[in-house]
Structure of D-glycerate dehydrogenase:
Amino acid sequence: MSKPLLLLTRHFPTAVEARAARDYATIPNAADTPMTGEEIAAAAAHTQPAGILCAAGDAFNATTIQALPESVKIIATFSVGTDHIDLQAAASRGILVANTPDVLSVATAEIAMLLILSAARRGGEAERMLRAREWAGWAPTQLMGVTLENKKLGILGMGRIGQALAKMARGFGMEIHYRNRNPLPESEAQGAIYHADDTAFLGAIDVLSMHIPGGAATRHWLDARRIAQLRPGSIVVNTGRGSTVDDVALCAALASGHLRAAGLDVFDGEPRIHEGYYTTPSLVLLPHLGSATVETRDAMGFRALDNLDAVLLRGEAPPHRVG
Ligand code: DGY
């Protein structure tokens, strides 16, 4: 029996592509850049795949999904986030959508912790000073940051990534607060403090770490009004989705000093980033590295292939179906 056709929108890790090639006739994308909706639709129309293995940044809007050929049974995304896929449009076409939860929680929490540490201890500024050959030697008041011990970390969105971060931050002596739809018995048992209200949450913390999904409902969740509710001198980090932060309001709060520092791994409209970010010294910037470890990217690929295999090789439901 011939292997099902699988369209790959990106280059994936070697072990992932090797496993894909074992079970599927794979159709690679020669250019390793996010595909536009038109490019995806054209490639699918040309090749008539049974499944598509895609990644965050590939634009599966309603028009693209409407244009996919009948042959496409499943879109498996190499990500936990699904805001790049119009789930309603896929459902209306009877196309399954599946993602890769769990396996990237620790790696993403590590990047959140790295941003918290870099923002609190001015890692970005220090590195830039050295590389600019501007260091004149140790000085008692040079680049002083703040200690994390005894500070209050506010986790917005206590999913798997938020919980992994809470575990790490406890090791630094931070007190954990969280804002979530519901209190979580396990987090409560570990002493994390639940907030049912945004205002009380923002007013209680020293560091805000954002872990909410993108999409219309969360667009610019962190706006000027909510930033003003944070205590003066607070730190903000975002490893969720860039669209949840109002870039202009964040830049203004860093420029005024209301916020001490911030760290961002995700950007609204990435890879484009807000112009003001380039020139804000108290901001640490990373290029969406949350899940970028060798172990995690392999695990994400295998999980995406598990989803594809269930549907295309065994005629079953994908284990991580989102739509
Ligand atoms: C995800 O999995 O959603 C991450 O943002 C990386 O793609």
Summary: Residues 176 and 192 are 5 Å apart (CA to CA).
